[in-house]
Write a structure and sequence with these properties.
The protein has 210 residues and is an alpha+beta fold. It has helices at residues 12-25, 36-44, 86-101, 122-128, 143-152, 194-205; strands at residues 55-58, 63-65, 73-79, 108-114, 137-140, 157-161, 167-171, 175-178, 184-188. The structure holds nickel (II) ion.
Amino acid sequence: MTRPILRIVACAGAGLWLALASALAGDAPQQSTRSAAEIMDILMWNREPVGGPFALTDQAGHARTDTEFRGKLMLVYFGFTYCPDVCPTDLQAIGLALDKLGPDGDQVQPIFITVDPARDTAAHLAEYVPLFHPRLIGLTGSDDAIRKVADAYKVYYARVPLKDGDYTVDHTAYIYLMDRDGNYLGFFPPGTSADRLVEIIRPRLAEPAR
Ligand code: NI
């Protein structure tokens, strides 16, 4: 399918580090329970389980839970629709990877979970997720529900006020790969190419559900 050309910023990786640095510098009320440093430490050294149950609302306004995706691999990504560079870049890579996997890609469920539920309503997600892939599911929920799932996936996010009274959201941007039973397999760093995603995911597709 044809997709609109999205604004791609070449220094997406640098953007993440800037976001992390500013996240480490201050506190914001709408945010993950733990600090960016704690969360990175957990992920880097595999100190705690990653992932877990969720009960959220999709872009059509329907209730969705993790259990309905059993039997498929899940590619789970956290971000927000106003994100200027990192999120669209990674979501575009996910969409391209699914296309490159061909019919086998149907065994992979891509999921985008917002860390900005105040602005990312179901209606807003409905305009956003189809830009990247027709099967991409966008999920939103209450502040509590989002914090719970972000904490479970070891995602750091925090609202950062802007000078004009608006705000942005700093967040870690890993793509999580979950197996057919919903268990964590690993993460892809921000900026991973579609080809690399395909290279890592394809062998997993050959493994049947347990
Ligand atoms: Ni983002």
